[in-house]
Amino acid sequence: MKTMKTTSALIAATALFGGVLLFHGGAGQSVADEVTPSSSFRLVANGDEGDCAIRRGAAIQDGLSLLTVAPNCRRLLPGIERAKFWREDEDGTVAFSADGIDPIVTFSVADGDGYESYAPATPLLSLATTDNQVKTADNW
């Protein structure tokens, strides 16, 4: 009889532990706490000298997503219009590339919920989420 109680307690503990892992993904953070990444951004050059729309698309693989760059972004950084991929590394840096590998521009996490470019060194670009802003013809 004592073995049955011990076995029942062991099964209950295992089920509880398994449920916790299910909802926390085994990583200590609840799946319910995960936030969907922003998809619409405003790219700004040198403190509002110009801006354009950037859209992060569907995820292709871990850290790599499709990218849509508005044609007028070329005014801010010639060549950026070729970017088709958004790559986000574990340290939070983001790179735009034409091939998913070689960056055209690379950003680090900025204060708030945006990014600031560090490569190339000029022009300085900032990337801020616009998911909560009203879409217009200029920013989609």
Averaged pLDDT, please? Answer: 77
Following the backbone from N to C, one meets helices and strands in this order, namely HEEEEEEEE
Q: Low-confidence parts lasting 5 or more residues at pLDDT below 50? A: 6-35, 134-140
Number of helices: 1
Q: What proportion of the residues form beta strands (DSSP E)?
A: 35-45%
Main β sheet profile: 8 strands, antiparallel, barrel
Number of strands: 8
Helix content: 10-25%
Kindly give the count of domains.
2
Structural class: alpha+beta
Main sheet strand line-up = 1-2-3-4-5-6-7-8
Terminal CA distance reads 69 Å
C-alpha geometry: globular
Radius of gyration: 22 Å
Give a structural overview.
Strands 1-2-3-4-5-6-7-8 form an eight-stranded antiparallel β-barrel. A hairpin with a 5-residue loop joins strand 5 (94-97) and strand 6. Residues 6-35 and 134-140 have low confidence and may be disordered. The chain has two domains: 2-33; 40-129, no CATH class. The chain is of the alpha+beta class and 140 residues long. It has one helix and eight strands. The chain has one helix at residues 2-24, and strands at residues 40-45, 50-61, 64-69, 85-88, 94-97, 103-109, 114-119, 125-129.
